[in-house]
Amino acid sequence: MNIKKFIKVGKAKYNLILDNNLSVTLNEEVILNNDLLLKKTIDKKTLEKLMRENNVENIISKCIHYISVRIRSKKEMYTYLNKITDDKNIIDNVIKRLEDNKYINDEVFTQLYINDKINLTNYGTYKIRNDLLMHNIDKNIIDKYINKVDDSILRNKINKIISNGIKNNDKYSKKMLIAKLTNKLISLGYDKEMINEEFNNYEIEENGDIIKKEFDKIYNILTLKNKYDEYTLKNKIIQKMMQKGYSYSEINKLFD
């Protein structure tokens, strides 16, 4: 089959018009790699080879677009490629090409991922580490960069969450507030010892309005049942208030 002419149909894409009226669209990379501008003649076997190579180039083009949105880990690229093709040889070939051309690099991915999470989220290092492990990043690479995170940055983030929690608290006792904030910080990936150290810098007082509101709520619920004598009612209220983290002395002040 003779190549009669090339017609550009898109960015780096051309239609090859053959003398049997067959039209084939190929990437510029495939055309150049196979010297088609010089050969001008191809057989059926060569055409099949060109189509396979073109398929790979199309897949690589999709991958580069996918990576252009944000940097991807090698695992993400394997997952993406498995949605496009089930040919393992093509997948491995594409991954190698992407690595050789520096489109994917798990060490660079790790650096940028840590920087983004530290600067743009409330994540602590434990959560960041676990997320990176989910990307199949080597533990040594993770440790290399996660250990560079300044403790002062983490402590500032912890303090911001604690301060906001205290400022916006309108329903929890001191004990419950500390427990809830501690659990929140642990779930975000902060070290428990560091959390406790930062809590030591705060003098958290019981909010009298919150205690009174909770007391009245429990009192009204129990008195509606109309089945407790005064002594039992008082003990029930004390029990329920203490379950919510209020101290015995603070509860007694309300009875007084």
Main features:
256 residues, Arc Repressor Mutant, subunit A, 3-stranded antiparallel β-sheet
Rounded to an integer in angstroms, the radius of gyration calculated over CA atoms is 33 Å
Structural class: mainly alpha
Relevant CATH superfamily of the largest domain: Winged helix-like DNA-binding domain superfamily/Winged helix DNA-binding domain
State which percent range the strand residues make up. 5-15%
Tell me what the structure shows.
The structure is a single chain. With 256 residues, the protein is mainly alpha-helical. The chain has four domains: 3-100, Orthogonal Bundle (Arc Repressor Mutant, subunit A); 106-146, Arc Repressor Mutant, subunit A (Orthogonal Bundle), CATH 1.10.10; 152-199; 208-255. The protein has 14 helices and three strands. A three-stranded antiparallel beta sheet has the order 1-2-3. A hairpin with a 2-residue loop joins β1 (3-10) and β2. The termini are far apart.
Indicate the topology:
Elements: E1 3-10, E2 13-18, E3 23-27, H1 28-33, H2 36-39, H3 44-69, H4 74-84, H5 88-100, H6 106-120, H7 125-134, H8 139-146, H9 151-167, H10 174-187, H11 192-199, H12 208-225, H13 230-243, H14 248-255
